[in-house]
Design goal:
This protein is mainly beta. It is built from two helices and ten strands. The strands form three sheets. It has a five-stranded mixed barrel with strand order 3-4-7-10-9. The chain has a two-stranded antiparallel sheet with strand order 1-2. Strands 5-6 form a two-stranded antiparallel sheet. It starts with a strand and ends with a strand.
């Protein structure tokens, strides 16, 4: 019988159990060189919901697909069934819009956010993370769009107070 490891906290304070053996197998499969790049499965898709944070290198982000739950107005969005993070390529000219808590200063429209470059995203994310502490899942939810080769070309930060 596999022991359980409690993974990251999700909305509502519950923790998702993951077996040690399943987590080990998932890591081994993800590291397999025979597997196609993660972004290929998203090629040409738009409006993919998930959590995004800076990647390990320039031109990359970490993306965790999730189910979007919205029980009321736009301020009630939260993620459910968050999948493991995967490294995805991002176009240097990607259309990125961020809002609070990632955006700094005055944001005239918290739903639309402000435009930033792919190069600026990691810096703003890390500054906000240092200023406010680690983000809850709701702090870095995005709708993401991909080009035909699986690169991210659009990211819209979802604002929820």
């Amino acid at each position: 019988m596999a022991a359980l490891l409690f993974a990251g906290t999700r909305a509502g304070g519950w923790r998702e159990p993951v077996s040690h053996s399943a987590a080990y197998r998932a890591d081994r499969v993800a590291a397999s060189p025979a597997r196609p790049p993660a972004g290929d499965s998203y090629a040409g898709r738009a409006g993919v919901f998930g959590l995004v944070k800076p990647g390990p290198d320039a031109g990359q982000v970490l993306f965790a697909p999730a189910q979007r739950v919205q029980p009321g107005g736009p301020e009630t969005v939260y993620p459910r069934d968050v999948q493991p993070y995967q490294t995805l390529p991002i176009a240097l000219d990607a259309n990125i819009r961020v809002t609070a808590p990632i955006a700094l200063g005055d944001v005239p429209d918290y739903v639309q956010g402000i435009a930033i470059t792919a190069e600026r995203f990691p810096q703003l994310y890390r500054e906000a993370d240092q200023r406010y502490g680690p983000f809850l899942d709701r702090g870095h939810m995005f709708e993401v769009g991909f080009d035909g080769s699986g690169r991210i070309v659009r990211m819209q930060h979802i604002f929820t107070p």
